[in-house]
Amino acid sequence: MASLTREETQALIQEVLEVYPDKAKKDRAKHLAVNDQSVEQSKKCIISNRKSQPGVMTIRGCAYAGSKGVVWGPIKDMVHISHGPVGCGAYSRAGRRNYYVGHTGVNTFGTMNFTSDFQEKDIVFGGDKKLDKLISEINELFPLVKGMSVQSECPIGLIGDDIEAVSKKKGKELEKPIVPVRCEGFRGVSQSLGHHIANDAIRDWVIGNRDGDNSFETGKYDVAVIGDYNIGGDAWASRILLEEMGLRVVAQWSGDGTLSEMELTPKVKLNLIHCYRSMNYISRFMEEKYGIPWMEYNFFGPTKIAESLRKIAAFFDETIQANAEKVIEKYTAEYEAVIAKYRPRLEGKKVMLYVGGLRPRHVIGAYEDLGMEVVGTGYEFAHNDDYDRTIKEMGDATLLYDDVTGYEFEEFVKKVKPDLIGSGIKEKYIFQKMGVPFRQMHSWDYSGPYHGYDGFAIFARDMDMTVNNPCWKSLQAPWQKPAEGEAEAIAASA
Amino acid sequence: MPNVMIRRNDDGGLLFYVAKKDMEETIASVETDTPEAWGGEVELTDGSRWYIDPISPPPEFPTTLRFKRAED
User: Fold this and answer.
1) Does residue A443 form part of some domain?
2) One of A28, A80, A83, A96 is an active-site residue; which one?
3) Which of A279, A351, A378, B3 is least enclosed by beta carbons within 10 angstroms?
4) Is A175 domain-assigned?
5) Are A19 and A138 within one domain?
6) What residue ranges define each of the domains in chain B, with the CATH number in brackets?
7) A200 and A233 housed in the same domain
8) What is the DSSP letter of A483?
């Protein structure tokens, strides 16, 4: 089926909006748009980062999810205390598959859940004493812990606990950084503010820790990988490419990262930022304070990887530039084989995406390398600057939807009829029951890595496995299918 | 009076970034841009105009400055 024209897409949006009451319709209309590559600024066609409408089914998370789940959580040698009632930490534990190396419970704590488990009396009398005791206990039980962060849940802000004072006191006592993070879930409209708060906490409590300490030997090829959370091993697949180029990766933020790596980041020559949305704040800060330039890169699919490697190499001298070409050449045979194998099976398939902060635009290149076409994309919690970057990546007259509601997404899928949907776990089973192939693109549907050349092979395999799975033909019960020859018989009798 | 971070983009132009508003615009023109001072009225590519008292000597970019909306 041919793609929709601009008018058809516009009509589709109008049709979907029809069911809303006037006020909600007016609001939602601003979040849905037809992509127009000639638009320079996204704010002219789409509004983002606004409070979701009450009563609609949104897919967003909270500030605590943005801070503990995304930015702080993967730092492996720190304990991240979910300060407040027990549920927030328990239900978000280890769901994001941020892989790391180490002995869990000895020197790394990534998949463990630490919580202050608030009870009624803590709400009434305050939980500072409990936090104080908890920090001492953790330090006693896990003496190799390098530091702690206190991730506030909603009640902490509501009852006004002074976690900063406790953190300062305990930090002095234990001589380890204890970082209070004010990421109460009710702050902001989505997890995006949580990223910002977490970045600010890193800025205030971590980044400056080694200012004036020159014992770290710096090199001229030092870089930091920022905003790669090592989901299914992503950061490792990216890191080897940079190392093969001759660069030294000093820090990984924050997948498989450590506290000391973060403290050393101000000493690098270049910050490479993958997830712009969640970590641009700290990169901008480091640029201002330490003069470290930063650049965005994209390691999804061979076209974008080659582009990014060349762009990164352009920051350095000829040796690195020559090495970049060598790396690209080295993997050429490998990725060409992948494309030769899967492209014929996937050519022309249509994809709709609805993910978080960077994937709705970053993975487009990877799909295009496989001959697939992204016909609709949207972000849960992006801001205008993300859409600025998306408009250029997407084809003309494709759908853009910001903070899409459950209803809108279903309707779009029914009309656009994509061959594959990439979104989160909450959408997965609805669409599978509708008979549409689905990949969970937040944590790669328990697969991965998808970054780098190694990741591309896995990405291609997974997409093929999903789209061409024989199960999609078996969704209709046999007795509901028209019997063989029946359709022709009806046609003949008419 | 937003806090604005001014930084150079890849082409050497100046970017005007307001974190609170997610606004990232290129600066089209600056009233005073001499070796002695930088500032005055700043016009962005989207047409909005901002004002800052000229700073002398000119600041090193990137840096964060407080701007006012220019009055017509």
Assistant:
1) yes
2) A96
3) B3
4) yes
5) no
6) 3-69 (2.40.50.240)
7) no
8) P
Q: Which residue has the tokens 């980062």?
A: A49
Q: What is the CATH number of the domain that holds A180?
A: 3.40.50.1980
Is A475 inside a domain boundary?
Answer: no
Domain boundary among A165, A187, A210: A210
* Ordered strands of the B3-8 beta sheet: B63-66, B3-8, B14-18, B23-33, B38-44, B49-55, B68-69
Last residue of a domain, one of A269, A295, A327: A327
A81 and A194 in a single domain? The answer is yes
The tally of domains found in chain A comes to: 3
Q: CB distance B24–A288 less than 8 Å? A: no
Contacts of A388 in chain B (CB under 8 A): 24
Please give the residue of chain A at the shortest CA–CA distance from B64.
Answer: A288
**Domain assignment of residue A163, given as a range:** 63-210
Residues A365 and A461 placed together within one structural domain of the fold: yes
Rounded distance between C-alpha atoms, residue B24 and residue B27, angstroms: 10
Q: Which residues of B touch A (CB under 8 A)?
A: 5, 7, 17, 19, 22-24, 46, 62-64
CB pairs under 8 A between A and B: 22
Q: Whole-angstrom Cα distance, residue A26 to residue B32?
A: 43
Give the separation between CA A348 and CA A258, rounded to whole angstroms.
43
B46: chain A residues, CB-CB within 8 Å? 41
* Pairwise CB contact (< 8 Å): B7 & A284: yes
Residue B62, preceding bond cis, omega within 30 degrees? yes
Instruction: Closest CB to B5: pick one of A41, A49, A288.
Output: A288
| Chain B residues within 8 A of A287 when measuring between CB atoms | 7, 62
The span from the CA of A327 to the CA of A344, in Å, is 26
A310 and A203 in a common domain: no
Residue A198 designated active-site: no
Give the pTM: 0.93
Whether A80 is a known active-site residue: answer no
For residue A384, give how far its alpha carbon lies from the nearest alpha carbon of chain B (Å): 6
- Residue among B5, B22, B63 minimizing CB distance to A383: B22
Name which of B6, B22, B61 to mutate to probe chain A: the one with the most chain A Cβ atoms within 10 A of its Cβ.
B22
Q: Do A239 and A275 lie in a common domain?
A: yes
Looking at the domain assignment, is residue A481 inside a domain?
no
Same domain, A233 and A204: no
The ipTM of this complex is 0.86
**Which residue of chain B comes nearest to A282, CA vs CA?**
B19
Torsion-angle region of A119 (φ positive above 0: left; ψ -120 to 50: alpha; else: beta):
beta
Digit-coded pLDDT (tens) for A237-291: 999 999 999 999 999 999 999 999 999 999 999 999 999 999 999 999 999 999 9
Decide: B15 and B27 in contact? Cβ < 8 Å: yes
